[in-house]
Specification:
Elements lengths: L1 H25 L12 H26 L5 H25 L4 H26 L13
Length: 137
């Protein structure tokens, strides 16, 4: 379980960093259907891209810890899940978005339970190499 969590956490981190940088560099061109949205949306998208880079770096930080901190993974996965909930709210208010946004929503709603499960399993896993200290002397 630890290896699966580490690999998935690293993939999430690198994907978020790459996507965030893409948004910083390309602005509106990185968002399907937003090419003509104007300067305000472009500015917001580039700012949010930078935030997504930071989010990805947080995932990478977690992946480098030994053991991976389950609490951090649950918080990061919760933020990802909140993004999926935001997409559902947008769907309810504005209707169906471009098809790729639906794919992203499925990922944002489907991956967090996997991370929660793996983090819980990792947290419960016995740690080798550490002996219990006896209070009898």
């Amino acid at each position: 379980m630890a290896k699966a969590l580490r690999i998935l956490t690293q993939l999430m981190g690198w994907a978020c960093v790459a996507i965030g940088l893409l948004h910083v560099v390309l602005g509106n061109a990185a968002i399907p259907g937003a090419g003509s949205a104007g300067a305000t949306v472009d500015s917001w998208g580039r700012f949010m891209g930078a935030c997504f880079v930071g989010y990805g770096l947080a995932w990478l930080w977690a992946a480098r810890q030994r053991p991976i901190p389950a609490r951090a993974v649950r918080w990061l996965a919760g933020v990802f899940l909140l993004g999926g909930v935001g997409r559902l709210l947008s769907l309810a208010v504005h209707g169906w978005p471009q098809w790729f946004q639906i794919v992203l929503a499925v990922m944002e709603l489907g991956l967090p339970p996997v991370f929660f499960w793996l983090a819980n399993a990792e947290e419960r896993a016995p740690r080798g190499g550490v002996e219990a200290v006896s209070s009898d002397r």
